[in-house]
Amino acid sequence: MHVAHLSLADFRSYARVEVPLDPGVTAFTGPNGQGKTNLVEAVGYVATLASHRVAGDAPLVRLGAERAVIRAAVVRDQRSTLVELELNPGRANRARINRSDNVRPRDVLGLLRTVLFAPEDLALVKGDPGERRRFLDDLLVARAPRLAGVRQDYERVLKQRNALLKSAAMARRSSGRVELSTLDVWDDHLARAGAELLAARLDLVAALQPLVRAGYEELAPGGGPTLLQYRSSMGEEAELGGGREGLYGALLGALGAARKQEIERGITLVGPHRDELGLRLGELPAKGYASHGECWSFALALRLGSYELLRADGGEPVLILDDVFAELDSRRRERLAELVAPGEQVLVTAAVPEDVPESLKGVRYAVAGGDVSRIA
User: Fold this and answer.
1) What are the tens digits of pLDDT across the range 152-193?
2) Which DSSP symbol is given to 77?
3) Rounded to an integer, what distance in angstroms lies between the CA atom of residue 260 and that of residue 172?
4) Fewer Cβ within 10 Å of end Cβ, the chain: N or C?
5) Fold category of 1-113+315-376 in CATH
6) Please, what sign has the CA dihedral across residues 195, 152, 164, 275?
């Protein structure tokens, strides 16, 4: 799988740009602030319908423009698919596949898969639990695009349930009486969607564990075993077996047990949105105990594990390394480069050509002032 051509219109700093791409390694080099990351961000957006840098679409549209357009020719199994995305902040985005308008943006998911390494990855280890939940869910959708709908359903139900809990909390304070029959319905919806999401996460963590451990050993030989631990908001005593039906029952029971506290606080306290992916290095949690270099190795191992998992599913993903080498010491830099170099397509950004390791020599583009020029 690779991107053969990238075309942008009013995306970030680019009014218009056309970039032909080849399999193998392509490096975009140039001073900071010239638009290197914007190019690989657009590729990642085609794969995930989201940016790795910002939460919303508004910053992706060039200042003064109403919309942005990303076009990518994606080649898989020697067949090319043209994917077009129109970003309309404040309105619905639009998508086309091979010039057909009869598609939703969500239908694009799965046509291109990427694994992106970026300086922001350090937050996977050092950041809040939401960073790790997002990592799991993004990988779930990359493997099985239908789970994007499950994720959206859960978030929609959660929003409705939180609104009801907030109203109930206000009613209790004002009159002392609360009507709970509607809450029973939302409990059922939340438990159903939550059980499916939770089951998928548990399967993913089990599949990812040995790959992350192997990736960490490749980057930091002898650095100690890594462990991924899924921690449910239902408590350590919660039974996480029994498949979806078992998880549905467990979630429904946990919601019932937490109802009094939830009404008092006006928010849902149980469910996948409150779960945590624990990362351990040896006997200690990585967060707060691992050194800076160990945190980097763990974060990179999570990405390498993701890559190997997607690769095993079929269709090698595009690897994106966005300004990551400047953050690494020389040993980790060279080892990471050696590990990713065999990828079908590897896109690299760096402020200076010297930051790109020798093992990633390939096509080079110079990026400056909105101009993207092939130099090798």
Assistant:
1) 999 999 999 999 998 887 766 666 566 677 888 999 999 999
2) T
3) 11
4) C
5) Rossmann fold (3.40.50)
6) positive
